[in-house]
UniProtKB/TrEMBL annotation:
GO terms for molecular function: magnesium ion binding; O-succinylbenzoate synthase activity; racemase and epimerase activity. SUPFAM superfamilies: Enolase C-terminal domain-like, Enolase N-terminal domain-like. Converts 2-succinyl-6-hydroxy-2,4-cyclohexadiene-1-carboxylate (SHCHC) to 2-succinylbenzoate (OSB). The gene is menC. It is an enzyme of class 4 (lyase). Residues 143-235 form the Mandelate racemase/muconate lactonizing enzyme C-terminal domain. The lineage of its organism: Bacteria, Bacillati, Bacillota, Bacilli, Bacillales. Keywords: Lyase, Magnesium, Menaquinone biosynthesis, Metal-binding. Mg(2+) binds at D189, E214, D239. One of its GO terms (biological process) is menaquinone biosynthetic process. This is o-succinylbenzoate synthase. Pathway: Quinol/quinone metabolism; 1,4-dihydroxy-2-naphthoate biosynthesis; 1,4-dihydroxy-2-naphthoate from chorismate: step 4/7; Quinol/quinone metabolism; menaquinone biosynthesis. Its EC number is 4.2.1.113. The keyword Magnesium applies.
């Protein structure tokens, strides 16, 4: 791929509603979009999913920018890329910093697919023309607010509802939700809010017919998750604990989870995400695509990845309007009856809304090749 330049656009966008998890609330999103431009004028886009503070993982917007500018872009400037998989091989000399790697690798995947006149989904080997999606709902001030919110999204047709939980707002809340919605596909995400001391409490979830519980224990612990899974009938899904194919293999071998949430940023890009998918499919472990409250570019990458056949459960890729007043892509991502129609245009399949990108951009830096 004959590269001309990479542009780093720093954006600020505000979520329609504050989002609350077991580690806090936030509404203003600071992040960056990477644009990879080739000598023929094709433009590929990637999104950094790191947040401003390191509560989900150790990466932040600033660490991503540092690693992208000072280590990853120089690697690309010194090497020739024939296929996006080369990017993940070259970046393996840098430890972790997966969200930083993924932002660039995503832009290169988009650029590669556009040069081949292929939708990104097809370039990855995906076959689905539509994908089923669910929605993730943050912790609400009252149970009444929660029931109203669930009702709203269930009416919109989302295929499963994920509820954030934390100690004090868990079994009691989920019991009320289940009583109001006896047949709704529901799951819970704890974002590491519990320890093994909570085993008997968490066992109460087994009566609520949850699809799964996501990351109940420490972000970096797969041994305790294996112990917990033995004590629970509800399947455990790992999110924060899985950063690579190697992590996925260990977690599956230990019995730490029955399901994996794959986030492209958390695992360092589409190439590694696909490797994890392939392995899980072979092992008959269900996977689904997680979300990081992305703007349209990241959302488009999630949609493309979800077209792979092993993504058997609805993911967190909700429609643009669930997050933003105005997204940065055209058309915006539309969810109808819990389904997104996969775009069939080359690359990520959505155009950048240049006016919106400009409106939310606070700074752009250009790195020439
Ligand atoms: O744990 O999956 C998570 C959002 C931010 C950080 C972590 C998580 C989430 C979500 C929302 O659950 C996913 C989305 O709607 O993009
Ligand atoms: Mg999660």
């Amino acid at each position: 791929i004959p590269m001309k330049e990479i542009k780093l656009h720093k954006l600020n966008m505000r979520l329609n509603d504050p989002f609350t998890t077991s580690f806090g609330t936030f509404q203003d999103k600071e992040f960056f979009i990477l644009e990879a431009v080739d000598k023929d004028g094709n433009r590929g886009f990637g999104e950094s999913v790191a947040f401003s503070s390191p509560w989900y993982s150790e990466e932040t917007v600033k660490t991503n920018q540092h690693v992208v500018e000072d280590f990853l872009i120089p690697i690309l400037q010194e090497n020739t890329i024939h296929h996006p998989d080369d990017v993940s091989d070259l970046f393996s000399s840098i430890r972790r910093n997966n969200m930083a790697k993924s932002a660039i690798e995503g832009a290169v995947w988009d650029l590669y697919a556009k040069r081949k006149h292929l939708p990104l989904a097809k370039a990855l080997g995906g076959k689905k023309t539509e994908i089923d999606v669910g929605i993730s709902i943050g912790i609400q001030p009252t149970v009444k607010d929660l029931l109203n919110t669930i009702d709203h999204y269930a009416q919109e047709g989302y295929k499963r509802i994920k509820l954030k939980i934390k100690p004090g707002k868990d079994v009691n809340v989920l019991q009320e939700v289940r009583a109001h919605f006896p047949d709704l596909p529901i799951m819970a995400d704890a974002n590491s809010a519990y320890t093994l001391k909570d085993i008997t409490h968490l066992q109460k979830l087994d009566d609520l017919n949850l699809m799964m519980i996501e990351q109940p224990l420490e972000h970096d612990d797969i041994v305790d998750h294996a112990k917990l899974q033995k004590a629970l009938r509800t399947p455990i899904c790992l999110d924060e604990s899985i950063h690579s194919l190697a992590d996925a293999k260990k977690a599956i071998q230990l019995g730490s989870c029955k399901i994996i949430n794959i986030k492209i940023g958390r695992v360092g890009g589409l190439t590694e995400a696909k490797r994890i998918h392939d392995y899980c499919k072979e092992q008959r472990i269900d996977v689904w695509c997680g979300g990081m409250l992305e703007a349209g570019v990241g959302r488009a990458h999630n949609i493309a990845l979800t077209t792979l056949p092993g993504f058997t459960l609805p993911g967190d890729t909700a429609g643009s309007s669930r997050y933003w007043q105005k997204d940065i892509i055209r058309p915006e991502v539309i969810v109808e009856n819990g389904v997104i129609t996969v775009p069939d245009k080359p690359g990520i399949g959505y155009d950048i809304d240049e006016a919106a990108l400009k409106k939310f951009t606070v700074k752009t830096k250009t790195f020439r090749f």
